[in-house]
Amino acid sequence: MQPSPPPHVVPFLRTAAAYAWRVLVVGALVYSLFAVLGRFHEIGVAVFLGLVITALLRPIADLAARGLPRPLAVALTLLGGIALLLGVLALVGEAVAGERTTLVREFREGIDRIEDWLERPPFRLNPDALTDVQSRLGRYLSSHRSTLISDAVSGAHRLVEVLTTLALALFCSVFFIHSGDRQWAWFDQQLPGSVRERVRIGGQAAWRTFTGYTHGIVLVAATNAVLVGVALWLLGVPLAVPLALLEFMAAFIPLIGSPIALAVAAVVALASKGPLVAAIVIALIVVIGQIEGHLLHPLVMSWAVRLHPLVVAISVIGGSIAAGIVGAVVAVPLVSVIWAVYVALREARRATETSGAEASAEGA
Fold first, then answer.
1. CA angle (267 as vertex; 263, 270 as ends), nearest 5
2. Global pTM value
3. What is the signed CA dihedral for 71, 73, 79, 84, rounded to 10 degrees?
4. By the 8 A CB rule, do 296 and 223 touch?
5. Whose CA is closest to 311, among 347, 342, 344, 345?
6. CA nearest to 111, candidates 92, 133, 96
7. CB–CB of 207/340 below 8 Å?
8. Distance of alpha carbon 110 from alpha carbon 125, whole angstroms
9. Is the peptide bond before 254 cis (omega within 30 degrees of 0)?
10. Looking at residue 190, what DSSP letter applies?
11. Per-residue confidence of the chain (364 residues) as pLDDT tens digits?
12. Of 198, 239, 216, which Cα lies nearest the Cα of 303?
């Protein structure tokens, strides 16, 4: 009896299955990398930050090195970057200190307005319930004072870890900016000759994608921060500069970072200016989300990172599960680099096969 032919597989299903196993492989690789980095997360974060600093400052150092010795150009570039960062932090601190008295008064009045608003229709909350919440919060703070002090001491320990990580990142960036290409060439020479060409191609694709992503995300974050800062200033919301800085930092977590930062701004607006201004800030969340999703990301990021939004969302969630906020920040550039290396090696292999087939044809 002749066996029946295998059932026909729809092209769409075949394509979906081909992409599915590739996504699973990339996901497993990313999870494994995060699991390993989780054991040495301070070193991993420091190296990542060093690469980010290098991607941002190396073009400036290369430009300065045309007229100055390379070590001096690197030193001046790093010192200028540190001075710019400290200047921004000083501006934020001055803005907070200058608005502290007004902010405390507006927050107290805002909390009273929120309570009155909740007591009126359609919520009709019992005033005693709100008072009970405040008293419970006060009792909780009083009874857990020792725990809060212990957390503060633990926070000081965390601060030391953060400063150590930043110092290591700066130390790495000095060598990456000064002679990163020579370090990579030395590493390439230590590998077997059969894999050197593929490592060179993959390394170039990885660095090109990483620098493109870094420049793009910084531009997107800066644009978002300027839009948020100007809008909050025009609306009279306090702490416009710190909230704009929060938006800048949150934009490094794609898809979810910016809405969370703007939600914080909406809460501040609700407490200080009332429901109307808070509603305008919520509308601002929608507008900036549309600008970021349909204008900034396609124009700025698509040439460097070619990932489907679903892949970005899964990467962010998977990174946050594996390594918290740091994982959410690192996940998208890491997946982008892995995909770029895969595409570059695939194109190189196809080019080699094509040239080999043409040579065979000419020989025949």
1. 135
2. 0.72
3. -160
4. yes
5. 342
6. 133
7. no
8. 17
9. no
10. T
11. 455 555 566 777 778 887 788 778 877 777 777 677 666 777 888 888 999 999 999 999 999 988 889 999 999 999 999 998 888 878 777 766 666 666 666 666 666 666 666 666 666 666 665 555 556 655 555 565 555 455 555 555 677 777 888 899 999 999 999 888 888 888 888 888 888 888 898 888 899 889 988 888 888 888 888 888 888 888 888 778 888 888 888 888 777 777 888 888 887 887 777 778 888 888 887 787 777 766 666 666 555 666 776 777 788 787 777 777 777 788 888 888 888 888 888 888 888 777 766 666 666 5
12. 216
**What region does 204 belong to: left with phi over 0, alpha with psi -120 to 50, or beta?**
alpha
CA torsion angle for 149, 153, 158, 163 (degrees, to 10)?
130
| 111 vs 118: CA distance, rounded Å | 10
3-state helix/strand/coil string of 1-57: CCCCCCCCCCHHHHHHHHHHHHHHHHHHHHHHHHHHHHHCHHHHHHHHHHHHHHHHH
- For 2, phi then psi, to 5°, come to -80, 130
Six-digit token pair at 96?
A: 């907070």
Structure tokens at 304: 């460097």
Using CA atoms, how far residue 72 sits from 64, 65, 289, in Å, is 9, 8, 42
Scanning the structure block, which residue is given the tokens 């970005």?
312
Distance CA 100, CA 342 (A): 52
Q: Which two structure tokens, joined as six digits, stand for 29?
A: 């690789």
Tokens of 11: 């092209």
Question: Which single residue is written with the structure tokens 């073009």?
Answer: 59
